[in-house]
Specification:
5-stranded parallel β-sheet; 16 helices; alpha/beta; 5 strands; Rossmann fold; about 375 residues
């Protein structure tokens, strides 16, 4: 496969394109996003101070002044440490979808106890959620984590709305997460897509599953003026240094890979994506670190030679996932061998989201 001369992205992304010099569209897009979303060094202190004061003022007189998500992973844990460092009063929100690793649970407990942060945990209805996860596996698209991601964003908005807060501080950021092909992970905001997949493959009704429609999203954003804030774009965020801080100050323990704090995510990224879809998400993760100067291309190529996850542990995860999803071995193999599809094979709000993104990106430099 043709591979970018600057990062690791290749034709496993069906939409990739290259310049005459062999540089891919992801590298070019990274530079554009960096210029519009990443707070530059000369403005960083001023912009961050203004943001902190804005959040404190909006939350004055309330039990909390912002909402944060917490998963036990690097980004969300560093956000928790950061907001307390700057004197904010967050409420941490966690989705228990039944797949937490023991390390993730321990990381969350130690972090919130040491930082004195209150926690709200939503325990999802397992039978409903299991049915939805199975629906996405049967849909044969590479975005099987959509059910979890959509529920998380729903809870963040709901809790902000409940407490009358204007700011949800997330761990999303430019320097480690800007690169991800659309066909590798579309749909976590698209309730129409989720409904269509579940209608085709699901067996139970989604009566308690946390979700929001486009109309509800508009209500949260424009009527309630709830803002998603990527605070890591306001600071110098290096993955290695962040992990060192968390380990030294919070006794945080690394779990072996990006988003591997979840057993299902670990299995999905390390087993299902490479074997069914020929997708190795490390290419995107390492490419982002290359573009942000945290990793050389040579170092990234060496890391790619290592197993995505130890084979014996992958087989343990495989057995565990099949049992927990309550399916037979033959059904799982049938899912793995089914022809691969993308979100374009289902009913979505993709065109509407694309128009909205163009408007947002055009006005971003004027409205912030």
């Amino acid at each position: 496969m043709k591979i970018c001369v600057q990062c690791l992205m290749d034709e496993s992304d069906p939409d990739i394109s290259f310049t005459g010099n062999g540089i891919c569209n992801h590298c070019l897009r990274y530079e554009k996003i960096k210029a519009t979303r990443l707070i530059q060094d000369e403005n960083r202190d001023e912009k961050l101070s203004a943001l902190i004061e804005e959040i404190k003022a909006a939350g004055k007189g309330k039990p909390y002044d912002c909402i944060i998500g917490i998963s036990g992973g690097v980004d969300s844990t560093y956000v928790a440490w950061l907001v307390k460092k700057y004197g904010l009063r967050p409420l941490a929100v966690h989705l228990d979808n039944g797949w937490n690793s023991e390390l993730a649970v321990a990381n969350i407990q130690k972090t919130l106890q040491k930082l004195d942060i209150d926690l709200y945990t939503h325990v999802i209805d397992w039978e409903e959620f299991r049915d939805l996860q199975l629906s996405f596996l049967k849909a044969s698209t590479p975005d099987g984590e959509v059910p979890t991601d959509h529920a998380i964003f729903t809870l963040l908005y709901k809790m902000a709305n409940k407490y009358g807060l204007k700011h949800v501080i997330t761990g999303t950021n430019v320097v480690t997460e800007a690169i991800l092909p659309e066909k590798w992970g579309y749909g976590y905001f698209d309730w129409r897509y989720i409904k269509d997949v579940h209608k085709r493959f699901g067996k139970s009704r989604l009566t308690t599953y946390p979700h929001f429609s486009l109309a509800k999203l508009g209500y949260y954003m424009f009527a309630r003026k709830i803002r998603m804030v990527s605070i890591l774009n306001y600071v110098e965020y290096g993955k290695t240094e962040a992990m060192r801080v968390l380990q030294d100050e919070l006794d945080w323990v690394y779990y072996g890979g990006k988003h591997y704090e979840s057993i299902y995510t670990r299995f999905y990224q390390a087993y299902i994506l490479p074997r069914k879809f020929n997708i190795d998400k490390r290419k995107a993760h390492y490419s982002n670190l290359i573009c942000s100067g945290q990793l050389s291309r040579e170092q990234a190529l060496e890391l790619m030679q290592e197993p995505v996850y130890p084979e014996n542990l992958l087989q343990e995860d495989r057995t565990y996932v099949i049992k927990k999803l309550q399916i037979r071995e033959t059904e799982f193999e049938s899912i793995m061998s089914a022809p691969t599809l993308t979100f374009e094979n289902y009913n979505t709000s993709h065109a509407l989201f694309e128009r909205a993104k163009k408007i947002v990106n055009t006005t971003r430099r004027y409205i912030g």
